[in-house]
Amino acid sequence: MQQPDRTERVIDPDMLAAIHKQKALQEADGGVPPTLVENRRQQDRLVPHWNEGAPDVAVIRDTAIPGPHGDMVARIYRSAEASQDAVILFLHGGGWARGSIATGEWACRAFATESRLTVVSLAYSLAPERQFPAAIDDIRAAMDWCAAHAGELGADGRRIIITGTSAGANLSLAAALARRESGEFAPIGLGLLFGVYGDNLETDSYRAYGLGQYGLSTARMKQYFEWYVPAGFDPKHPLISPLHANLTGLPVTFMGIAEFDVLRDDSLLLTGRLAGAGVPTEVRYYGGLAHGYPLYARTVPAARDALSDAAEFFRRTANAA
């Protein structure tokens, strides 16, 4: 396990410049929108800036996947050198309420080219229109679809590595737990990147970065939980806050942790829980990076390096499993 460097307290200058650029783009677009719907629309307008120069991929195409709440859009990425070993199922971040296939574009292109695996990026159900457990049900349906469409994917769709960022990491872990409990076929690996794994908004990292100076704030996370968790439902449910789950039997797991992130301590706590449950875990602590670093890979070399770390893990996992 890579131990956090507790002496480093200076954010990567490229990371900081990217955060400032995003804020400038928002201001030029009229400022922070007052509603969730308008916020989603603004995100769709701004993300093309960050996707410029993303790695070239031989095949990129959209498809429809039937799900429990209707057809879902998915985007398939496949490099010219793609193997048939496994599929990466990617889940974007956005607090269970925002984000899209477009916000994960750079990461998916990087994973497809560097891991040489087929990537399926899923547009799962968003809250508050569809609250817990709708997105988890979507992901389970997408895994079954991958298993049934090996020919279309050009890969073994029963050998799936689930990965995601932020809320997408939460959903990756929750889907693996749900499938374990139901006896369905399981993923062969997990890639958990700066995820939310608990409902405690008073950890040291929340106290340090909760004002949102590096992006995600405590107030925003509180709102996300309110949107995602149905009224009267316990946010400590193990599929909402996996820190409260039985983690035994999970597959080999990659943990990507950003230092300047309110969710940093969630990842550190989960790392300890995984170790205690005997789950083989590879931990990378990215001193200097902030929450959401893959979005800024265009201008942050350290973020591109972090994506390469995950891609290399996916390649090794596909070869070993």
From TrEMBL:
Keywords: Hydrolase. Residues 88-293 form the Alpha/beta hydrolase fold-3 domain. GO terms for molecular function: hydrolase activity. Gene3D superfamilies: alpha/beta hydrolase. It comes from the Bacteria. Belongs to the 'GDXG' lipolytic enzyme family. This is Alpha/beta hydrolase.
